[in-house]
Structures are given as C-alpha cells and as structure tokens.
Amino acid sequence: MLPAELLKKIRRIEIRTSHMVNDLLAGQYHSAFRGRGMEFEEVREYRIGDDIRTIDRNVSARYGKPHVKIFREERELTVILLVDMSRSHQFGTQDQLKRELVAEVCATLAFSAIRNNDKVGLIAFTDRVEKFVAPRKGQKHVLRVIRELLYLTPEGSGTDLSAAFDYLNKTTRRRSVVFLVSDFQAAGYEKPLRIARKRNDVIPISVSDRREMELPNVGLIELEDAETGETVIVDTSSKTLRRNYALAAAVRADERETMFRRMKMDSIDVRTGESFVEPLARFFRKREARMS
Questions:
Q1: Which long-range contacts link 133-137 to residues 24+ away (Cβ below 8 Å)?
Q2: What whole-number distance in Å separates Cα of residue 36 and Cα of residue 52?
Q3: I need a surface site. Which of 81, 97, 98, 127 has the fewest CB within 10 A?
Q4: What are the boundaries of each domain within the chain?
C-alpha cells in the first residue's frame, strides 16, 4: 500500500501534466514524431503518377508489367524514459527537488506518448540499473511509471551512463525514441552514447538547479558531493571563488552541449523552479520544422 501523501503527489502530477498535454502541448508531440519509419505493405501494378523509384524490378519482370512497392507510415512508437536516479537528484533550492522535476517532465512525455497511442517504458538507473518497466500503453501504465519515479529507493548513489546504455541496447529490439533524463554529473559516456545514438533516437534532457550554476554570497558554507559524500568548506563571500565556480559550471554545460551537437542530437534543458513547458514545446517545434 502506497502512503497517502505519495498517492496525492501522483494525483497532482497526473492532473498537472495531463493539463499541459491537453491544453499546451496538444498536437506538438504527434507532429514532432510522425512518420518515424515506413513499413512495406504490398506490391501492385504501376499507376500513372507513381514514383518510378518504387518500381520492384523482380516482380515487374515476373509479370511482364511494371509493379511498385507500397509502404505505409509506421505510426506506433516505443518511447523509453532512461532516467538518472542518482543521489544528486535529491537536490533542489527552488522549492523543488530535481527528482520531482524529473517526475513531472517524464509524466508529461509519457502522457503525450499514450495520447498518441505509443508505448512507454522506463529504465531507472544510478551506478546500476535500478528498475525496468517494459513498454506498454494506457493511463494506468503511465501512473505506474510516475509511481516508480517518485517512490523508488535506489540502491546506488552514483551515475553510470555506460551501464544504462548497455542495458538499453539489450532490452530494446526495435528502434525507439529514448529520452535520456539526467543532470549528467558523470564522465566517460560519450562512446556508449554514440553507440546508443546509432540504434535509437536519443534525446538528452539536462536537469539542473540554479545553485549548481552559481553560488550566493552567504559566507562560509559546507558543500557535499551527493554521489560521493565528499565535503568541502568554502567561503562564498569571495568574488573570485564565486566567479570561478560559475565559470567551471558554464564550461561543463558548454562542453556537454557541444558534444550533443556534434552527435546531431537535439537536447532539452530544464531547471528546478522554472516551467519546463516552453523548452519541451520549443523542442517539438524544432523537430516538426525539420520534418516538414
């Protein structure tokens, strides 16, 4: 039995994200991901106006008349939420933890997918794979995914993107749309990401908090690395320290985005305490424009 407070939280997320899908993102998901592939349907005789590039030479030779291959749009997609559940997501300074933001973003994507009659699956990971929920359709299934994102107690604390990609490659038999949701506080994942990119449509969603990008001037504070437990005391009254901290964070973010662009991946940036609707809508519009 789930705690009453968790049930209320799941219900709030369901109401909030369903509203976003119905009123704010209506049709944009479908437009962004329509026509992801073509399936062979039949061969028939050539008709005036048919594309000559679709002529099947073998069948045409067999019957003595030109025949063409007919394809239909493969409409149903498999959407995989590949979600980082490492301990660093238990951080948030803007009235929201990163993990709570992740749950809302994933819920919005999941409801968009099932509204489009797509399957949704979940791979939750830390420095190991924590949970796998096989892709299925339906609102009850999406609510289960949301429950796992909120209720799951991870065994690991760090981040191993390579292990997550390995598991993804083993469990997905067909090309999928993979939303990789993480704060990317890890290193050495470029090669496995590149491999996963070849097999799937991988869309990175970077999750951050304002205080990960800049420090306030509040004097001496103790900072703890959520994934390693290492602590350090810093003097935030130092302008040099604050400037170097912000610069290092900006460099990491720029290097990450440069890597995504090099792999020709469209990324989405979301931040605690801020609306994620416009970043999602902007991504959908960009995809739609590219496909038109």
A1: 135/78, 135/79, 135/80, 135/176
A2: 23
A3: 97
A4: 38-73, 79-291
Pairing of strands 38-45, 67-73: antiparallel
Q: How many CB atoms lie within 10 A of CB 109?
A: 25
Complete DSSP assignment for 215-255: ----SEEEEE-TTT--EEEEETT-HHHHHHHHHHHHHHHHH
Please, are residues 10 and 143 in contact by the beta-carbon 8 Å criterion?
A: yes
pTM of the model: 0.83
Give pLDDT tens digits for 210-243: 999 999 999 999 888 888 888 999 999 999 999 9
Query: Under a CB-based contact definition with an 8 Å cutoff, are residues 13 and 34 in contact?
Result: no
Residue 274, token pair as written in the block: 């801020």
CA distance 209 to 228: 19
- Does the domain at 79-291 match CATH 2.115.10.20? Answer given as no
CA proximity to 190, closest of 119, 129, 262: 262
Tokens 């995504």 sit at which residue? 260
Q: Which amino acid is at 170?
A: K
CB 75 within 8 A of CB 41: no
Residue 156 CA to its chain's centroid (Å): 21
- Reduced to 3 states (helix: H, G, I; strand: E, B; else coil), residue 88 is helix
In one-letter notation, the amino acid at residue 263 is M
Whole-angstrom CA distances from 274 to 8, 85, 249 are: 22, 20, 19
Rounded CA gap, 172 and 19, in Å?
30
Give 31-79 pLDDT, tens digit per residue.
787 655 555 668 889 888 888 888 999 989 988 999 988 766 556 789 9
